């Protein structure tokens, strides 16, 4: 993201990569930084800002604006998928498409919007095969699992078949068990358990699904993720009366609008 901000400032001032990079770093390193493929030392970034005549505060403010707009678009996409119409999804997709080249993060959001639109039955620029061809190497080759990687896997888990997720899910859980994970990582562990558990149910691998879902429930309890905990209960329970009781409990807690989404995932 920061490299893209440098690029935007440089272009607005009419400065070439060669002139900006001179005596600070190689032009190729600057190009890689601007495209989020390289992170220079902090003192090098300061030198670039000095040459651009931009203060650190100004630079951070510009970077934050880009990040805030990304989050707005992401939230709009999620809301449109869950509650909106196909026209709403198309409108959000247009917005995201216009900023897809700002950074790798924005491009991945564009892929997600294309994926959601495609699975909603609409014609898209990119095919599912093309989306998967971009996402799969990022996840299967990744050795670090922080927010970006976990969010990416959670968003695109359904792209992969059971055999692929069997490998990737175990790899991620093993990595998270070893490292000192953040609160955000623990929450994604719950979301991943839910999504993978649902895929296992759809594959009629009930015992494996139950194990994954109950592990997710333990994490949900620790993080007070009540909605996710109740969703797991609904997926695991067989008795209709108990599921109905949980539905009523959700309504009492103000989750009426989410029941449609919940029921979409339940076994028939």
Automatic annotation (TrEMBL):
SMART domains: HTH_XRE. It holds the Pfam family Rgg_C. Residues 6-59 form the HTH cro/C1-type domain. It comes from the Bacteria. GO terms for molecular function: DNA binding. InterPro entries: Cro/C1-type_HTH (IPR001387), HTH-type_regulator_Rgg (IPR053163), Lambda_DNA-bd_dom_sf (IPR010982), TPR-like_helical_dom_sf (IPR011990), Transcription_activator_Rgg_C (IPR010057). This is HTH cro/C1-type domain-containing protein. It comes from Enterococcus ureasiticus.
């Amino acid at each position: 993201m920061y490299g893209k901000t440098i690029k935007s400032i440089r272009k607005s001032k009419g400065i070439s990569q060669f002139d900006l990079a001179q005596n600070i770093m190689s032009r190729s390193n600057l190009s890689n930084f601007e495209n989020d493929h390289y992170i220079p030392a902090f003192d090098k970034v300061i030198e670039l800002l000095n040459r651009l005549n931009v203060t650190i505060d100004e630079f951070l403010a510009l970077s934050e604006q880009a990040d805030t707009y990304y989050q707005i678009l992401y939230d709009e996409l999620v809301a449109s998928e869950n509650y909106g119409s196909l026209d709403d999804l198309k409108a959000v997709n247009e917005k995201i498409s216009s900023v897809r080249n700002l950074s790798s993060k924005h491009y991945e959001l564009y892929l997600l919007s294309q994926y959601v639109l495609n699975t909603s039955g609409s014609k898209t620029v990119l095919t599912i095969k093309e989306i998967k061809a971009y996402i799969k190497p990022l996840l299967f080759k990744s050795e670090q699992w922080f927010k970006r990687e976990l969010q990416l896997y959670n968003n695109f888990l359904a792209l992969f078949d059971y055999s692929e997720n069997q490998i990737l899910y175990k790899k991620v859980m093993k990595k998270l068990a070893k490292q000192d994970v953040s609160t955000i990582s623990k929450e994604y562990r719950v979301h991943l358990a839910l999504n993978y558990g649902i895929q296992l149910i759809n594959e009629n691998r009930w015992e494996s699904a139950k194990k994954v879902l109950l592990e997710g429930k333990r994490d949900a309890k620790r993080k007070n993720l009540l909605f996710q905990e109740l969703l797991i209960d609904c997926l695991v329970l067989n008795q209709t009366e108990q599921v109905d009781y949980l539905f009523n409990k959700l309504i009492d807690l103000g989750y009426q609008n989410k029941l449609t989404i919940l029921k979409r995932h339940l076994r028939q």
